[in-house]
Amino acid sequence: MLNIVLFGPPGSGKGTQACNIIAKYNLVHISTGDLLRMEVSEKTELGIRAKEIMDKGELVSDEIVIGMIRNKLKGNQDGPGFIFDGFPRTVDQARELRKALTENDERVSVMISLDVPKDELVKRLMKRGEETGRSDDNLETIQNRIDVYGRQTIPVTYYYDKMHKHAPVDGTGTVDKIFERIVEVIEKAN
Ligand code: B4P
Question: Closest ligand 1 atom to the C-alpha of 178?
């Protein structure tokens, strides 16, 4: 199986590039952001709790997120692989992912992190906020999401560094150019 972790700060293009990767490699897409937004739109108990946290730009608890991931993994164990988009976002989530994959004799093939400067992230997310009205794409929440990324999520890169799986990719330029860089990394890992 080809199992890709797509990593990067909010607004770095994870969701955008995940779509391109899926189209080329036919992987199962697991976006914790999308899964949480689905719970929010269906107004489930989990969704009501998650919305409050997401609107502040904080991370939803590891327990909730890991539960969602295990559910998604269960139903898709015979496919060509997975793309994990926006997960893991903490070292504990990374450890749990390793555990869950190992139970099926699987592993992360590569962790691709998209590098984008902060001012560009803010610009992209503000634009999306204006276009879609997404409730966490406002200046105050965006700033906090970027701070939370620096404090809680960056350590995940060290975790994959230690396993020699971390591949940084320049996330600036056109979507197509960035995708070309990503494909190069995947082809090496595959
Ligand atoms: P996510 O849904 O993961 O949101 P995100 O980090 O903003 O990334 P997204 O994929 O949506 O945006 P992209 O960079 O593609 O998370 C939202 C919230 O959910 C989190 O804050 C947290 O509360 C919670 N959550 C999710 N996962 C969690 C976890 N594992 N643990 C705990 N909590 C979790 O794109 C941004 C914009 O840039 C788009 O408008 C796009 O069109 C544009 N763009 C992309 N590439 C571009 C390019 N090359 N040039 C110009 N614009 C570009």
Answer: 49
Asked if 28 and 79 touch (Cβ cutoff 8 Å), the reply is yes
Helix H or strand E segment including 120: helix 118-132
Q: Ligand 1: which of 17, 83, 124 to mutate, most ligand atoms within 8 Å of CB?
A: 124
Q: What is the pLDDT of residues 98-150, one digit of tens each?
A: 999 999 899 999 999 999 999 999 999 999 999 999 999 999 999 999 999 99
Pocket of ligand 1 contains residue 175 by CB under 6 Å: yes
Query: By C-alpha distance, which of 103, 89, 84, 69 is closest to 146?
Result: 89
First to last CA, the chain: 9
What's the pLDDT at 157? 98
